[in-house]
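User: Here's a structure from my thesis project, written as structure tokens. My advisor, Dr. K., wants to see whether a designed sequence matches the one we expressed. Can you design one independently, without my sequence as a hint?
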């Protein structure tokens, strides 16, 4: 199940995700956090993959699935995966607030 409002294009979808995080978690909505969510949302939406917190985590931690997503992009999408090739990317190494939000939302969806 995806989150956020339907958007007419990818960039509107990215902005909607960032706006939602700013609205619900203003204390955690720091610029690096919003940038990371924006990059991940852009990557998934460009690949026409469901935009879920689970898929954001999978994009970072599952190199094989990330490669499949990247192969669906008509043009490269910049993000923390640049230059990582087949490495696992730990969200905790990217940004404390990004990691906290990702874990919080995944845990909330599982309960």
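Assistant: Designed independently from the structure alone:
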């Amino acid at each position: 199940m995806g989150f956020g409002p339907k958007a007419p294009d990818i960039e509107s979808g990215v902005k909607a995700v960032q706006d939602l995080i700013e609205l619900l978690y203003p204390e955690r909505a720091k610029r690096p956090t919003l940038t990371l969510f924006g990059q991940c949302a852009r990557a998934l939406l460009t690949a026409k993959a469901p935009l879920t917190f689970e898929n954001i985590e999978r994009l970072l931690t599952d190199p094989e699935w990330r490669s499949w997503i990247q192969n669906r992009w008509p043009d490269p999408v910049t993000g923390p995966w640049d230059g990582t090739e087949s490495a696992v990317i730990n969200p905790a190494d990217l940004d404390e607030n990004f990691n906290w939000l990702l874990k919080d939302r995944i845990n909330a969806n599982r309960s």
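When you compare it with your expressed construct, this may help: The longest helix spans residues 31-46.
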